[in-house]
Design goal:
about 425 residues, mainly alpha
Length: about 425
């Protein structure tokens, strides 16, 4: 099978699965907002923030390293697998120990129960993560797509059943744990049959991959705060109810991204990696992917801005129409962030995680200043500052990040973002 055929097949399966996953997520939120309090979504937003942060270290940059290294022996894969499992256990224990401090910081005792409970996913994810990476690297997206769909459907069923029966926030927690169990056990079974696994482990075999991944971990660590510091700040200075409304608005505007990003990342990174030795082709494919993304994302978010009220009314009900303005403001931020997210695939393909780390450190200085200023007023002003910061960083992003990895003019950079090419998008 040629690379083009594999890419087309991968895009097809990923598109189908992502559409179903997006539908399941929309149904879950739409139904659960009728049964759960807004405060429950605020609590889950905080738990998700903490879990996402811990998961950065759980990966240890191995995803980037495995995708970047062309050939890896079965013995080395085994060493990487057991190392990843060990790291998952260590991170879980660490999370369990610091949970009381997090609970005290937010003055929410229930976090003492919620965080360790959902933290089990750190261990569960290690069961199938490396097999998932192997399938992605080989552009075998059919099995991943089917597993993801089954996991999402089971999660949806668990969430609805528990919500109807009065489990509150635990409906969200247990549904996520169920999804992780199903997907990772399925990946493990398929991975064992296709790739095998031994009880072999050598620390020296792991270290080259850790060195490659460390820059990525550092970059993701910083970028995570850049991306989600609004949740951190709102959770501290506003009530869980206010955070719940903001997080629901945030989830709504992220929904198109949850449909597009998996397709872009699953196919984009492996495809660009094929050209990491050819700078011209790497640049060509990167600009084409970015422009295709922009040609889809910008019209989509313009529609969300224009029709935010009926969208919120239908999905969340009349009691949450007060978040419409937040949805409209955050849509601007998502346009900039989503189009710019393709740089991650370029970083993986080029292996220049050091440049990405330096850029994210610079962003970490700027973004919190905007958001903290907004928090002095109200949650709407926080949303305005989030969107404004992404606009302000557009030009520096060219000089300090993109142009450092591939040589391109500012005009090429600007056109990739804003010169929409619908004909090329439809052909692709």
């Amino acid at each position: 099978m040629t690379l083009r055929t594999k890419v087309i097949s991968g895009a097809k399966w990923t598109t189908i699965s992502t559409a179903i996953l997006a539908l399941c997520a929309i149904l879950k939120i739409s139904i659960l907002t009728r049964y759960l309090d807004t405060e429950d979504f605020g609590l889950m937003a905080l738990v998700t923030f903490v879990m996402g942060f811990m998961n950065l270290f759980n990966d240890f940059g191995l995803t980037v390293a495995i995708l970047h290294v062309t050939k890896i022996s079965k013995k080395v894969y085994s060493s990487l697998y057991w190392f990843n499992m060990f790291v998952g256990v260590v991170i879980f224990v660490f999370l369990w120990l610091i949970t009381p401090l997090i609970s005290i910081f937010y003055e929410l005792p229930i976090l003492n129960t919620l965080i360790p409970l959902i933290g089990v996913n750190l261990i569960i994810s290690g069961i199938g993560k490396l097999f998932n990476i192997q399938e992605r690297k080989n552009l075998n997206f059919k099995s991943i797509s089917v597993i993801d769909v089954v996991g999402a459907l089971i999660s949806l069923a668990i969430a609805i059943y528990l919500a109807i029966n009065g489990y509150g926030v635990y409906a969200l927690v247990y549904s996520l744990i169920g999804q992780f169990l199903v997907t990772n056990i399925a990946l493990f079974v398929i991975g064992i049959k296709k790739y095998g696994l031994t009880f072999h482990f050598k620390y020296l075999e792991v270290m080259p991959f850790v060195r490659i991944g460390l820059y990525q971990v550092g970059s993701q660590f910083v970028n995570y705060f850049n991306r989600d510091i609004d949740i951190l700040i709102i959770g501290k200075f506003f009530s869980a109810d206010v955070l719940g409304g903001y997080s629901l608005a945030r989830e709504l505007v992220k929904r198109p991204v949850s449909f597009i990003s998996p397709i872009l990342n699953m196919v984009g990174a492996p495809t660009l990696s094929k050209f990491n030795a050819d700078a011209q082709k790497l640049k060509q494919y990167y600009l084409k992917m970015t422009n295709m993304l922009a040609s889809l994302i910008i019209p989509m978010y313009v529609c969300i801005i224009l029709f935010a009220y009926p969208i919120v009314y239908i999905l969340y009900g009349p009691d949450l129409t007060n978040i419409v303005i937040i949805v409209q403001i955050l849509s601007i931020n998502m346009i900039m962030r989503t189009i710019g997210s393709n740089i991650g695939n370029l970083v993986i393909a080029s292996g220049r995680t050091d440049i990405e780390l330096r850029w994210n450190l610079a962003v970490l200085i700027v973004t919190p200043i905007f958001i903290i200023f907004g928090s002095l007023f109200n949650v709407q002003m926080v949303a305005i500052m989030v969107s404004l910061s992404s606009i302000v960083l557009f030009v520096p992003g060219y000089y300090l990040l993109t142009n450092k990895i591939i040589s391109l003019t500012f005009r090429e950079y600007f056109n990739a973002y804003f010169k929409l090419n619908f004909k090329q998008f439809l052909r692709s």
